[in-house]
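Researcher: For the record, we're logging two predictions in this thread. I'll number them. Prediction 1 follows.
Model: Prediction 1, sequence and structure:
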Amino acid sequence: MKLGKIMLGSLLLAAAPLAAQAEGMSYSYVEADYVDVDVDNGPSGDGFGVRGSVGFAKNWLAFADYVDASVDGIDIENISVGLGGHYPVASNLDAVGRIGYTETDLSAGPVSVSDDGYLLSLGLRGQMSQFEAEGHIVYTDLSDGGDETAFELAGRWNFTDMFSAGIAYRVGDDANVLFAGVRLSW
């Protein structure tokens, strides 16, 4: 997990000099989130998350996501890093795909378990005036924990070209997760 945190920090530090302001929707940002986790037929908990992305070339991006939450005495850390691309399918509407490495650590007292694997994501991102909406299908396959297909919907209000606030809701096989946060784009 320490390697993942180093990679996330490096990505976010490298973002400032590498990113340029893109026309339309920006794929270079850093976001801080409050995270609420509801386990199906079980407990709920909360924590925080940090997401970041750096757009490069014309239609490519590198991303990193980190979540640290606690559910009923179990600490959950998840990090995902990878690459993606976006392609315009209409005016102000992009198809977005991502592929990456993901790692999850669970700990309760002295007991801890770690699992890793890959993720695939495909969705649409659109902008109407100051409002953005996104919808994604996210497939995750962990070495020991099996696979999961989740659906994520997000909405974001852009107060300026650089600052926005929004929510995202992910519905998965075993848990539902709400993200509410602020984003700084460039």
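Researcher: Logged. Prediction 2.
Model: Prediction 2, sequence and structure:
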Amino acid sequence: MKRAIAIIGIVTCAMVSVFAQPAARYETPAGQRVRFAPVDIYMDSGSRALAAYQFELKALSGDVQIVGVEGGAHPAFRQPPYYDPAALANNRIIIAAFNTGSDLLTGHTRVATVHLRIVGDAEPEYEVKLMAAADAEGDKIPAEITYAKGEQK
């Protein structure tokens, strides 16, 4: 049901406005290398049209700070997804997006990119967990989520 997707969107927007915090200030430890890198998030919904998703991304190791989130490759999810700023603590983020249009994605597509600030030379390890995936009727669909690390020069 499109109504269920709309309710998810309203709740997500409410969470963002309630938990909104000023931007964090990042200080570079003396003598430490600092770099920025993206983590691309991919969803594979097979032949089913993906209308809504929610996932959690965690940094399991490394000194990582989340500094930005951008939308995906498909027009249905090109706008930056919603996220809970309060969930940015402890090197993790919960992200959700929905689209009630008719041009929805199917198959394997990048749905979001999370930009990170990494301190030190250690290569962080990540975990991504799909919390929900739904079609335009609001019904749960089977989907797989993966990520790919990148390095910005």
